[in-house]
Design a protein that fits this description.
The protein is of the alpha+beta class. The chain is 57% helix and 17% strand. A hairpin with a 5-residue loop joins strand 4 and strand 5.
Protein backbone atom coordinates (compact mmCIF):
# COMPACT_ATOMS: atom_id res chain seq x y z
CA UNK A 1 0.00 0.00 0.00
CA UNK A 2 1.33 3.40 -0.97
CA UNK A 3 0.42 6.65 0.81
CA UNK A 4 0.28 9.96 -1.02
CA UNK A 5 0.15 13.36 0.66
CA UNK A 6 -1.61 16.11 -1.24
CA UNK A 7 -0.79 19.66 -0.23
CA UNK A 8 -2.75 22.79 -0.90
CA UNK A 9 -2.68 23.86 -4.53
CA UNK A 10 0.02 26.37 -5.44
CA UNK A 11 -1.08 29.96 -4.98
CA UNK A 12 -3.65 29.13 -2.33
CA UNK A 13 -3.47 29.61 1.39
CA UNK A 14 -3.56 26.62 3.68
CA UNK A 15 -6.72 26.42 5.74
CA UNK A 16 -8.96 23.77 7.21
CA UNK A 17 -10.68 23.63 3.81
CA UNK A 18 -7.58 22.65 1.85
CA UNK A 19 -5.23 21.21 4.46
CA UNK A 20 -3.05 18.22 3.67
CA UNK A 21 -5.05 15.12 2.87
CA UNK A 22 -3.72 11.60 3.25
CA UNK A 23 -4.77 9.38 0.38
CA UNK A 24 -4.08 5.67 0.48
CA UNK A 25 -3.59 4.15 -2.96
CA UNK A 26 -4.62 0.50 -3.17
CA UNK A 27 -4.58 -2.11 -5.88
CA UNK A 28 -7.38 -2.76 -8.34
CA UNK A 29 -9.49 -5.11 -6.12
CA UNK A 30 -9.68 -2.52 -3.32
CA UNK A 31 -10.49 0.27 -5.80
CA UNK A 32 -13.29 -1.81 -7.26
CA UNK A 33 -14.70 -2.44 -3.79
CA UNK A 34 -14.47 1.26 -2.90
CA UNK A 35 -16.17 2.23 -6.16
CA UNK A 36 -18.97 -0.24 -5.42
CA UNK A 37 -19.54 1.18 -1.93
CA UNK A 38 -19.35 4.78 -3.14
CA UNK A 39 -21.88 4.03 -5.88
CA UNK A 40 -24.33 2.91 -3.17
CA UNK A 41 -23.74 5.59 -0.56
CA UNK A 42 -23.10 8.37 -3.06
CA UNK A 43 -26.28 8.29 -5.08
CA UNK A 44 -28.76 11.03 -4.28
CA UNK A 45 -31.58 8.77 -3.11
CA UNK A 46 -29.42 6.74 -0.71
CA UNK A 47 -28.05 9.93 0.82
CA UNK A 48 -31.55 11.32 1.26
CA UNK A 49 -32.87 8.07 2.78
CA UNK A 50 -29.96 7.90 5.23
CA UNK A 51 -30.57 11.48 6.33
CA UNK A 52 -34.35 10.90 6.55
CA UNK A 53 -33.70 7.93 8.85
CA UNK A 54 -31.21 9.89 10.97
CA UNK A 55 -34.00 10.83 13.39
CA UNK A 56 -35.13 7.26 13.96
CA UNK A 57 -37.15 4.50 12.34
CA UNK A 58 -39.77 5.39 9.76
CA UNK A 59 -42.46 3.65 7.79
CA UNK A 60 -42.26 3.41 4.01
CA UNK A 61 -44.97 5.99 3.31
CA UNK A 62 -43.44 8.43 5.82
CA UNK A 63 -40.17 8.21 3.91
CA UNK A 64 -41.94 8.61 0.60
CA UNK A 65 -43.74 11.75 1.80
CA UNK A 66 -40.58 13.25 3.30
CA UNK A 67 -38.27 12.63 0.32
CA UNK A 68 -39.54 14.94 -2.39
CA UNK A 69 -39.43 13.56 -5.90
CA UNK A 70 -38.76 9.91 -5.09
CA UNK A 71 -41.06 7.37 -6.70
CA UNK A 72 -42.39 4.32 -4.89
CA UNK A 73 -40.28 2.08 -7.11
CA UNK A 74 -37.07 4.06 -6.52
CA UNK A 75 -37.64 4.17 -2.75
CA UNK A 76 -38.19 0.40 -2.73
CA UNK A 77 -35.01 -0.20 -4.75
CA UNK A 78 -32.98 2.20 -2.60
CA UNK A 79 -34.18 0.66 0.68
CA UNK A 80 -33.43 -2.85 -0.59
CA UNK A 81 -29.93 -1.84 -1.65
CA UNK A 82 -29.24 -0.14 1.67
CA UNK A 83 -30.60 -3.17 3.53
CA UNK A 84 -28.45 -5.52 1.43
CA UNK A 85 -25.37 -3.45 2.29
CA UNK A 86 -26.19 -3.57 6.01
CA UNK A 87 -26.95 0.15 6.31
CA UNK A 88 -30.71 -0.13 6.91
CA UNK A 89 -32.76 -2.69 8.82
CA UNK A 90 -36.32 -3.66 7.98
CA UNK A 91 -38.68 -4.76 10.75
CA UNK A 92 -42.07 -6.28 9.96
CA UNK A 93 -44.72 -6.21 12.70
CA UNK A 94 -47.56 -8.70 12.34
CA UNK A 95 -50.73 -6.66 12.13
CA UNK A 96 -53.47 -5.94 9.61
CA UNK A 97 -52.11 -4.49 7.42
CA UNK A 98 -48.53 -5.50 8.26
CA UNK A 99 -46.41 -2.69 9.62
CA UNK A 100 -42.93 -2.30 8.13
CA UNK A 101 -40.40 0.02 9.73
CA UNK A 102 -36.99 0.99 8.40
CA UNK A 103 -34.11 2.18 10.56
CA UNK A 104 -30.41 2.81 10.25
CA UNK A 105 -28.17 0.04 11.53
CA UNK A 106 -25.04 0.93 13.52
CA UNK A 107 -23.16 0.87 10.20
CA UNK A 108 -25.78 3.15 8.65
CA UNK A 109 -25.52 5.51 11.62
CA UNK A 110 -21.76 5.71 11.06
CA UNK A 111 -22.50 7.06 7.57
CA UNK A 112 -24.54 10.02 8.86
CA UNK A 113 -21.56 12.21 9.75
CA UNK A 114 -19.67 11.84 6.44
CA UNK A 115 -22.90 12.42 4.48
CA UNK A 116 -23.73 15.53 6.54
CA UNK A 117 -20.16 16.84 6.11
CA UNK A 118 -20.32 16.34 2.35
CA UNK A 119 -23.68 18.11 2.22
CA UNK A 120 -22.32 21.00 4.27
CA UNK A 121 -19.28 21.18 2.00
CA UNK A 122 -21.57 21.36 -1.05
CA UNK A 123 -23.64 24.15 0.53
CA UNK A 124 -20.52 26.11 1.52
CA UNK A 125 -18.97 25.79 -1.94
CA UNK A 126 -21.89 25.92 -4.36
CA UNK A 127 -21.20 29.59 -5.16
CA UNK A 128 -17.61 28.86 -6.19
CA UNK A 129 -18.72 25.84 -8.18
CA UNK A 130 -21.36 27.86 -10.05
CA UNK A 131 -18.77 30.55 -10.86
CA UNK A 132 -16.33 27.90 -12.12
CA UNK A 133 -19.06 26.28 -14.24
CA UNK A 134 -20.06 29.62 -15.76
CA UNK A 135 -16.42 30.45 -16.59
CA UNK A 136 -15.87 27.00 -18.09
CA UNK A 137 -19.08 27.18 -20.14
CA UNK A 138 -18.23 30.68 -21.38
CA UNK A 139 -14.75 29.54 -22.41
CA UNK A 140 -16.15 26.40 -24.07
CA UNK A 141 -18.71 28.46 -26.01
CA UNK A 142 -15.96 30.85 -27.07
CA UNK A 143 -13.72 28.08 -28.39
CA UNK A 144 -16.57 26.59 -30.46
CA UNK A 145 -16.79 29.75 -32.59
Amino acid sequence: METLIRSAQGGTFASDRNADVTLEVHGAPQCTAVNDVLARVGDKWSVRVVMALAGGSRRFNELRRDIAGISQRMLTRTLRGLERDGLVSRAVTASVPPRVDYALTPLGNSLRDPVARLGNWAIANIGEIEIARAAFDAESDHTKL
